[in-house]
Amino acid sequence: MLKLFQHNTPKIHELEKASSAIDVRELNLWFGDKHVLHDISMRIPKNKVTALIGQSGCGKSTLLGCFNRLNDLYNGCKYKGEIVIGGKNINHAKVNVARLRTRVGMVFQQPNPFPMSIYDNVCYGLKLQGVNIRRHLDDAVESALKEAALWEEVKDRLFESAHLLSGGQQQRLIIARALALKPDILLLDEPTSALDPLTTLFIEELMAELKQRCTIVIVTHNMQQAARVSDYTAFFHQGRLIEYADSDTLFTMPEKKQTEDYITGRYG
Ligand SMILES: Nc1ncnc2c1ncn2[C@@H]1O[C@H](COP(=O)(O)OP(=O)(O)OP(=O)(O)O)[C@@H](O)[C@H]1O
C-alpha cells in the first residue's frame, strides 16, 4: 500500500468520546421518496483526516453535506437523527446555519473562486461577518494564504483576478478562503479530482499540515489517496455504512467482503 505519511493512528474503538469532532447518531436522509442515507452512526475524530469512500451514488457527498446543512438547499430533502458538533445537535431547527458554515468549511471538486481579486476572495467571508479594519483583513489574508501554502506564490499579486491562477493555485485559494474563517472542520469533496498528479500531491501534503489545526473529512474516489492521506476511512454502499476503521486496517485487513471487493477494484 502506498503511504506518504506516518499515521500512528489509534484503532477506532480506542478513541475517547471526547475526541470526536462530529458525532453522527442514527442519521437517515431522504430526497423526496428516495431514502439515500440509512441509519448512519459514526464518530469522526478531532484533528484527524477521515475519508469517505464507496461507489458513485452511495451517498458520500450527501453525508458530507449533512455536516454543514448543505442539503437544506434542496427542496424535498428531509432527515432524521442527530449530528453533534461542538456539543450541539446541528440538525436542530434553531441552529444558526450561517454560523455553522463558518465553523464547518467546505471545498468542492472544481475550484470556484469568485470573480474578484485573490485578496478579496480570501477575506470575502470575514467582510460578510463585518470585519472591515484593513490591518485585520491584511493579517487574516496573509495567515490564511500561508496556511494554504499559497502565500509565496501570490504575495506580489494579491490584487490580481483570482481567475488568473492555475487550477491547483485556485484550489489552494479556496482552501485559504475557508481557513480565513478559522473553521474547526474542513469538508473536502473530491478536492483533487480536477488537478494534475503533482498538484494533487501538494494538496495532500497540505492536508497533513492542516489537520494539526482542524478536523478534515474528505470524499475521494481515489483509493491510493484515501490510504495516503487519511487516518480513518469509512466505506459506504447504497447509503449504508459498511465498515469504518483506521485506514491501515481498512486497506490491509478489511473485515467485510464487500469492503475488500471495493478496495481491490472488484466492483465500483
Ligand atoms: N439534490 C438531490 N436531489 C435528489 N437526489 C439527489 C440529490 N443529491 C443526490 N441525490 C441522490 O442521492 C444519492 C447519493 O448521491 P451522492 O451525490 O451523495 O453520492 P456520492 O456517493 O457522493 O456519488 P459520487 O461519488 O458520484 O459523487 C444518489 O442516488 C443521487 O442521485
From TrEMBL:
Cell inner membrane among keywords: yes
A GO term from the CC aspect: membrane
Organism: Alteromonas profundi
PANTHER family: ABC TRANSPORTER I FAMILY MEMBER 17, IRON EXPORT ATP-BINDING PROTEIN FETA-RELATED
NCBIfam families: 3a0107s01c2
Protein name per the record: Phosphate ABC transporter ATP-binding protein
GO molecular function ontology, one term from the record: ATP binding
A Pfam family this chain is assigned to: ABC_tran
Organism phylogeny: Bacteria, Pseudomonadati, Pseudomonadota, Gammaproteobacteria, Alteromonadales
Domain of life: Bacteria
Keyword NAD in record: no
PROSITE patterns assigned: ABC_TRANSPORTER_1 (PS00211), ABC_TRANSPORTER_2 (PS50893)
Residue span(s) of domain ABC transporter: 22-263
One of the GO BP terms on file: phosphate ion transmembrane transport
Keywords: ATP-binding, Cell inner membrane, Cell membrane, Membrane, Nucleotide-binding, Phosphate transport, Translocase, Transport
InterPro entries per UniProt: AAA+_ATPase, ABC_transporter-like_ATP-bd, ABC_transporter-like_CS, P-loop_NTPase, PstB-like
